[in-house]
């Protein structure tokens, strides 16, 4: 009778007899230690047997054509940087071509005031008419669109561009149509650029009138609300190209006349102005009545960087701004603004090396409904040379132009604009941008600007943009400094990542890049969306010091402290240095469930021609900073690199057979082996492309296409050769039925014959060459090159026990009793051989037809080169989706966690609660995934070559463990349940916990994947574990968290509900106009007007950026074994438990008394908790300016500038009776609507 059958019979007897057990269970520590040792040995043997870990390790180590070398990280990062610089320079060249074409077309274009022009409007193409009076009928054209993989399968037209017109701009406006007509010539340039550089994505031109020409052409998608609010002139790439950095003070009038809608329009204007400010700008907002007040008290007396966090804080402050009252003291407000700019400029000069301030343009934005004088004395005192530009915004539809407000702008090189209602804000608030662009336009300096990372509106995810301003070069317009618009090209982050392939950085290695402000351009821990899939407001201003967290108690240091190692790394990269440093960091897993401590090696350098710096990380774990170097199939000629790689035909033939003869068992990572053009990308996968180009090389004398990456291909061919014999091993282990060779077509047979003939006819070089084929972490290092294997692998795979004198190709006899076997003694290795196949004492399961099945459903090996070999158990009734879920080897968790260990033990894991991967194909049962690193040692140096493992059913692991608790007790017979302390006893809780406290095995299936600390009944047990140091609690701050907050809104919405109040509001405005008139003729001296205003206070729940504290746990094996009990909080009993480490694994065995009831202790809180800072500490952190580098150059003034065009304020003013009537009607309708 097998042990499996005995186990099931015992369970049946237990259920039938309903054996009652005592609640006073005594946990025997010595017995638990025995169980842990026995179970660990048994589990280890089973894992070794079915994975083939020792077999594959010997395959690597026995080869005399490989060795281990350290990686030159500086060389690697500089090579990657050079490739990036070349790619980015091509994008700049594309922008220059667009820019030149528009400027040339504008010089030659004759303006047509009577123009009628049809174009492809991206909002209207392929739409139906709205009826007989459809004014957009002529724009509702048919437009051919085809999904394109290069554009994330978005339907595009690569022949024509389309035009999107901002919502507040008329589709048939004369200025708009002339601009569209003159830029039609861009279609030709768009296509030429795309043909020259197929990696290009969106190319576009944004015009100063508000239209946006985009290539390739698309149908514009509205936002989630069905609205199109996109205005190219408000985008960061447009504004950054149009203006130099600026220091800005925004003054908001909150006097009594700014009531009702004026107050709300003023706040909206501030928010709109803030949206035009970028990371290189500095600003603050001050409200004023009879006194001045900073919107955020923490920002008193300074300017702060206009990043997302600071702008969001100001927005929240505006919502809580007090109601308008009293008379505005303009002199006080203007003096405050000028002195703030002056004092800040002094601070900038003092701390110039830190990058504080914009140190370029200075501006004051004044938002008011009128001023009773010009305050010329203030401007003469503080702004005699007009170095500070003043922009004024006159608020209110019911008031006429104010010459005093206009004078402030026109006499200070600014711009004056009227904002009558909400609808006017978007169009008018940003008019200052074209004023600030004048010096640059007159100078004719086409600066190249790179944006921070942002989410693409059109669906290509994260990207950066390179853009340049486009000028009106007509000599007659030079002094006016007219900016035609901005040309731009998008660069998706994924295109940059293609130049930092994973195989060059190794397991747990990764690339990252930052901007001149220290913000992340890309990083594996950048999380732009919240848990609901919404974009975080500050996703593009995440600092490097917020994701690279050194292993230092953060309570001792501020995040911005220069003492933190991550800030030293950040400073070096911001300063564009090339260098190297080590740092022990805390790295959480992708799902934020686990925390790892790693010693990372950082290498960094600048990206010339951009504001970016590139860094790479090589992990120290499992010798991640070293590489395994072997033979190459393709050799890259030395020199200028103009010639392509040339391959050995025999090795290439063998590689094709190893990779593609059994496509079900060999899975290739979704990496870029060969760059595909657009047509290829739509018709084949990347692995299919690899096969295509390898066969082309075979038929072209070994010459590999320049599209392909010979280093990566050498990796994967080498891995395929070394891992090929493992398939025969697995066939033997599983006693798999012999596979019938597939019937080959005549075409395939002819191809094989051709390949064999090409191999036989190849002239082998007399001097062998070798080079790096297999790089564990980075690039290949070429040493003593060879060209060819010592022999060719036979066409039939050898059996598992086959021996040969050829140490290059055929596997050795596997001796599992060798003391060198993973460092395990012969006593620990309870293995036998049966029918020339390695077997163990692992528990056996049999299917209905009597074939062997041990509950293991597949074996796998994943290599550094991106190859995964999978062998499903032919007798398993359940299937796994391993190939679909984990195709990318070193980027997958099973590989990364295996690499965390420096010993050749197995890491066992189950899907944690909430995870979707790691179940059987039908989703009915948990799978336990076991993986171990294949560590190869050569000449005393070690490197990780692969990760190997298996998947088994969780129920099988449970039954295997339950068996262990009976087989190793003398008082338990082989069938019946007649002993107390076993895991079959319902009074005994049995668990396998992993190194982070997650439950891998439990008698209760619903507990699998949970954290043990979350189980209420064992809360006191886990608390004791923490007290005794078995698990250590670790706190980590998440600086990218989002919190739900309730904010109060103070508004004057009630005015719209009462017609009398609406009329009184108008009368108050009229009264103020009288006051202003009197003041202008000298008849007004002092008159304080008090305005009574009813307010409405509302609450709103919003998501805002915050810091959250995460709680993690890590096992301390030095404190095991441990046996203890809890008595004080328990009811006349001792709740005993015992635990010990399971050898050769990451598991901890825990046996605990379930019946002893103790006082309920609240389980450990595993959910992240918002960090509540005290106000002074939080304020100090906000005010601290971290190190940054200012962009260059600066264009703030030009002697030829003509500033007479400073805005117009004409406004049609209806009669007083008409205004009163309209206000009354509107108020009544609103009142009735609110009632219904």
UniProtKB/TrEMBL annotation:
It is found in: Membrane. It is a single-pass type I membrane protein. The keyword Transmembrane applies. It comes from the Eukaryota. Its main location: membrane. InterPro entries: Ca_channel_alpha-2/delta (IPR051173), VDCC_a2/dsu (IPR013680), VWA_N (IPR013608), VWF_A (IPR002035), vWFA_dom_sf (IPR036465). Residues 247-436 form the VWFA domain. Coiled coil: none annotated. It holds the Pfam family VGCC_alpha2. Keywords: Calcium, Calcium channel, Calcium transport, Disulfide bond, Glycoprotein, Ion channel, Ion transport, Membrane, Metal-binding, Signal, Transmembrane, Transmembrane helix, Transport, Voltage-gated channel. GO terms for molecular function: metal ion binding; voltage-gated calcium channel activity. GO terms for cellular component: voltage-gated calcium channel complex. Residues 1-23 form the signal peptide. PANTHER family: STOLID, ISOFORM H, VOLTAGE-DEPENDENT CALCIUM CHANNEL SUBUNIT ALPHA-2/DELTA-RELATED. Belongs to the calcium channel subunit alpha-2/delta family. This is VWFA domain-containing protein. It comes from Patiria miniata (Bat star). The lineage of its organism: Eukaryota, Metazoa, Echinodermata, Eleutherozoa, Asterozoa.
């Amino acid at each position: 009778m097998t042990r499996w059958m005995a186990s099931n019979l015992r369970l049946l007897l237990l259920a039938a007899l309903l054996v009652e057990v005592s609640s006073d269970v005594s946990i025997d520590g010595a017995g638990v230690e025995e169980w842990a040792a026995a179970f660990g040995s048994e589990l280890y043997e089973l894992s070794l047997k079915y994975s083939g870990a020792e077999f594959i390790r010997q395959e690597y180590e026995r080869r005399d054509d490989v060795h281990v070398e350290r990686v030159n990280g500086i060389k690697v990062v500089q090579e990657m940087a050079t490739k990036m610089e070349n790619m980015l320079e091509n994008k700049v060249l594309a922008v220059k071509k667009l820019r030149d074409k528009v400027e040339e077309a504008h010089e030659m274009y004759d303006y047509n005031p009577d123009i009628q022009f049809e174009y492809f409007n991206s909002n209207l193409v392929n739409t139906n008419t709205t009826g007989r009076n459809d004014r957009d009928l002529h724009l509702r054209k048919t437009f051919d669109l085809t999904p394109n993989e290069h554009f994330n399968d978005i339907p595009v037209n690569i022949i024509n561009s389309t035009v999107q017109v901002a919502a507040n701009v008329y589709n048939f406006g004369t200025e708009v149509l002339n601009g569209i007509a003159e830029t039609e010539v861009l279609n030709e340039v768009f296509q030429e650029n795309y043909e020259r550089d197929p990696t290009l994505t969106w190319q576009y031109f944004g015009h100063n009138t508000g239209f946006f020409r985009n290539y390739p052409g698309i149908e514009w998608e509205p936002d989630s609300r069905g609205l199109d609010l996109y205005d190219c002139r408000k985008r960061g790439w447009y504004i950054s190209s149009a203006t130099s950095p600026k220091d800005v003070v925004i003054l908001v009038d909150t006097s009594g006349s700014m009531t009702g809608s004026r107050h709300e329009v003023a706040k909206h204007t501030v928010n709109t102005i803030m949206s035009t400010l970028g990371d290189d700008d500095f600003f603050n907002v001050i409200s004023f009545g009879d006194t001045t007040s900073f919107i955020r008290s923490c920002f008193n007396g300074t300017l702060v960087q206009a990043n997302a966090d600071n702008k969001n804080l100001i927005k929240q402050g505006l919502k809580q701004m007090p109601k308008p009252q009293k008379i505005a003291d303009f002199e006080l407000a203007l003096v405050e603004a000028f002195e703030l700019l002056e004092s800040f400029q002094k601070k900038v000069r003092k701390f110039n090396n830190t990058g504080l301030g914009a140190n370029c343009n200075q501006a004051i934005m004044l938002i008011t409904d009128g001023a009773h004088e010009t305050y010329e004395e203030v401007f003469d005192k503080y702004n005699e040379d007009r170095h500070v530009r003043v922009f004024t915004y006159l608020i209110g539809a019911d008031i006429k132009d104010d010459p005093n407000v206009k004078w402030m702008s026109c006499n200070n090189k600014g711009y004056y604009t009227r904002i009558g209602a909400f609808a006017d804000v978007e169009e008018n608030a940003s008019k200052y941008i074209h004023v600030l662009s004048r010096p640059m336009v007159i100078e004719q300096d086409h600066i190249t600007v790179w944006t921070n990372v942002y989410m693409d509106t059109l669906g290509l995810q994260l990207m950066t943009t390179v853009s340049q301003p486009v000028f009106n070069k007509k000599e007659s317009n030079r002094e006016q400094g007219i900016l035609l618009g901005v040309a731009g090209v998008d660069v998706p982050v994924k295109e940059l990542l293609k130049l930092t392939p994973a195989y060059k950085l190794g397991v747990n290695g990764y690339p990252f890049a930052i901007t001149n402000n220290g913000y992340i351009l890309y990083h594996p821990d950048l999380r732009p969306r919240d848990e609901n899939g919404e974009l975080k407001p500050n996703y593009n201003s995440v600092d490097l010091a917020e994701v690279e967290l050194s292993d230092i108690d953060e309570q001792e240091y501020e995040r911005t402290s220069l003492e933190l190692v991550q800030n030293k790394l950040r400073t070096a990269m911001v300063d564009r240095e090339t260098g190297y440093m080590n740092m022990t960091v805390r790295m959480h897993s992708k799902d934020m469930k686990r925390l790892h401590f790693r010693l990372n090696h950082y290498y960094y350098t600048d990206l010339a021609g951009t504001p970016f710096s590139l860094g790479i990380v090589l992990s120290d774990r499992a010798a991640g900073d070293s590489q395994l170097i072997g033979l190459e199939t393709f050799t890259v000629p030395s020199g200028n690199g103009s010639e392509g790689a040339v391959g050995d035909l025999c090795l290439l033939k063998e590689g094709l057979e190893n990779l593609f003869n059994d496509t079900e068992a060999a899975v290739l990572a979704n990496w870029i082996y060969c760059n595909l053009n657009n047509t290829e990308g739509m018709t084949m996968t990347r692995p299919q492309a690899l096969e295509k180009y390898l066969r082309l090389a075979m038929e072209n004398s070994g010459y590999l296409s320049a599209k392909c990456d010979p280093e990566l291909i050498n990796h994967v061919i080498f891995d395929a050769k070394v891992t090929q014999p493992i398939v025969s091993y697995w066939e033997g282990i599983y006693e798999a039925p012999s596979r019938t060779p597939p019937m080959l077509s005549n075409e395939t047979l002819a191809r094989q014959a051709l390949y064999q003939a090409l191999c036989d006819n190849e002239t082998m070089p007399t001097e062998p060459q070798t080079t790096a084929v297999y790089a564990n972490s980075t690039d290949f290092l070429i040493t003593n090159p060879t060209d060819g294997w010592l022999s060719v692998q036979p066409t039939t795979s050898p059996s598992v026990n086959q021996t040969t004198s050829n140490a290059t190709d055929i596997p050795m006899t596997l001796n599992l009793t060798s003391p060198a076997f993973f460092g395990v003694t012969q006593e620990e290795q309870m293995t036998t051989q049966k029918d020339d196949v390695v077997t163990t004492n692992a528990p056996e399961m049999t299917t209905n037809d009597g074939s062997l099945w041990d509950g293991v459903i597949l074996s796998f090996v994943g290599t550094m080169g991106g190859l995964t070999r999978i062998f499903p158990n032919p007798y398993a009734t359940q299937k796994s989706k391993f190939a679909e879920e984990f195709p990318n080897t070193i980027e997958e968790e099973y590989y990364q966690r295996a690499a965390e260990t420096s010993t050749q033990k197995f890491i066992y894991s189950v899907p944690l609660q909430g995870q979707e991967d790691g179940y059987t194909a039908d989703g009915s049962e948990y799978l336990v995934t076991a993986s171990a690193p294949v560590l190869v040692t050569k000449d005393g140096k070690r490197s990780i070559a692969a990760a190997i493992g298996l998947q088994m059913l969780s129920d099988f692991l449970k039954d295997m463990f339950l068996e262990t608790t009976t087989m190793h007790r003398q008082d338990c017979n082989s069938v019946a349940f007649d002993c107390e302390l076993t895991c079959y006893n319902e009074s005994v809780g049995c668990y396998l916990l992993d190194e982070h406290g997650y439950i891998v095995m439990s008698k209760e299936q619903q507990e699998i994947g949970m954290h043990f600390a979350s189980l209420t009944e064992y809360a006191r047990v886990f608390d004791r574990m923490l007290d005794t140091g078995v698990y250590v609690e670790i706190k980590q701050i998440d600086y990218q968290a989002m919190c739900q907050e309730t904010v109060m809104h103070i508004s004057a919405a009630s005015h719209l509900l009462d017609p009398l109040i609406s009329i009184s509001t108008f009368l108050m405005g009229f009264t103020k106009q009288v006051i202003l008139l009197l003041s202008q003729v000298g008849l007004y001296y002092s008159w304080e007007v008090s305005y009574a205003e009813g307010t409405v206070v509302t609450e709103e729940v919003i998501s805002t950026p915050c810091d959250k504290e995460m709680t993690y746990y890590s096992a301390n094996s030095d404190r095991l074994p441990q046996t203890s009990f809890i008595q004080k909080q328990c009811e006349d009993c001792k709740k005993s438990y015992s635990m010990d480490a399971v050898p050769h694994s990451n598991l901890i065995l825990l046996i605990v008394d379930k019946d002893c009831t103790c006082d309920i202790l609240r389980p450990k809180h595993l959910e992240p908790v918002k960090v509540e800072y005290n106000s002074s500490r939080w304020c100090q952190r906000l005010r601290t300016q971290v190190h940054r580098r200012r962009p260059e150059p600066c264009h703030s003034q030009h002697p030829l500038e003509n500033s007479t065009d400073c805005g117009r304020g004409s406004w049609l003013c209806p009669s007083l009776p008409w205004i009163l009537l309209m206000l009354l009607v509107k108020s009544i309708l609103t009142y009735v609507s609110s009632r219904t």
